[in-house]
Structure formats: structure tokens, C-alpha cells
Amino acid sequence: MDVSTLAPSGKVVFGCTVKMIDEHTEETIVYQIVGEDEADIKVGMISINSPIARALISKVEGDVVSVIVPGGERSLEIVEVRYI
User: How many CB atoms sit inside 10 A of residue 21's CB?
Assistant: First the structure.
């Protein structure tokens, strides 16, 4: 799927890049949602099957998602969705 051909809607879909703010730490986080074979957290690419990606899919800019991760619960605000 070539996300660069999608009309910008602010909606999180497979292949897009999502910029978020952790509401607790105020840390900025940027992930691209990719397939299992491409996933590499060290370069900001997370699997579509990861808990964070599953929580983000179909959400839009401005939404806040709560995700249970190995370190506990995180509240992430979606600040930007890019289709590159």
C-alpha cells in the first residue's frame, strides 16, 4: 500500500507515520506502522500487530489513546499523522 497516494485525513492507517506526545513524560514519539517483517523499534518502525499500533489504527489527530506496554500504561496524544 502506497500511503503517499492517500488524501491527508489525519486518520491513522497502515503505513503512515504517527507523531505522539506521551502525556505523562511529555516525550515526543514518532512511529511508522509497518508489517511484521519490516518492524524495527530502533528506527521507529512498529508492527501493525503491536499493542501501540492496534490502539492507534483508525484514530485521528488530537485523539488520546491508552496503551498497556511492558513498562505499564501509557497515554499518547496523536499530534500529527503523515502519509509519506
Answer: 17
Q: What is the pLDDT of residues 25-60, one digit of tens each?
A: 999 999 999 999 999 999 999 999 999 999 999 999
- The residues, ordered by sequence, that sit 6+ positions from 8 with a Cβ below 8 Å of its Cβ are 81, 83
CA distances from 23 to 44, 50, 63, 79 (A): 19, 20, 12, 11
* Cell numbers that stand for 75 in this block: 497515554
**Beta-carbon contacts of residue 41 (< 8 Å; ≥ 6 apart):** none
Task: Record the pTM.
Answer: 0.86
Q: Is residue 29 classed as helix, strand or coil in its secondary structure?
A: strand
Decide if 46 contacts 57 (C-beta within 8 A): no
Which single residue is written with the C-alpha cell 500487530? 49
73: Cβ contacts below 8 Å, ≥ 6 apart: 66, 67
